Amino acid sequence: MRIMIEKSEDDLEDIDWEDLDKTIDDYRIQLDLNGHLKELEELQQDIEYSRDDLISAFCDRGKLLYKNNRYEDAILLLERALKYYPDQTELICCIGFASIYQESLDAITYFQRALGIDHRCSQAHYGLGLVELKLFSNPKASQRIQELLMALNPMLGSKLKNQITKFLMKRKI
Predict the structure, then answer these.
(1) Is 16 domain-assigned?
(2) DSSP-derived 3-state class of residue 30
(3) Domain check: are 124 and 104 in the same one?
(4) Tens digits of per-residue pLDDT, 84-113?
(5) Integer Rg of the chain from CA
């Protein structure tokens, strides 16, 4: 059943269309996030999925959200996953990376938490290197972390080295 509401032209002029568009967009984003959460919780109840599959699904969805500049949503989704898997360094590091994009120092806490669980967690070391570089503009500290990271995970060590090189080149310009 459809209800029609008659509006006069004067009534339509009084509507703040920009604010209405923002409210509609916020509502759509919330529906989208709720859809992610509902789907992941349904996955969690399905016994065919392993714990690793679920962690991977949460991380993939979180990464998708922060790649689309939806950092707060990514953090919300990943923190919810942490309630089920509090010792998963991959989830913790994903939140740390989303925090870096928000330029939040909370990233340090997440990476340190991951290192408290596994002191050899290469993602956490890489994340701390990015924090030093991107949030503190400290390439020397990043280089020290990069040297340590080369021993743990040469691929991430090289990736951090490339980030440091780009940072230093931008600084010279």
Answers:
(1) no
(2) helix
(3) no
(4) 889 999 889 999 999 998 899 999 999 999
(5) 21
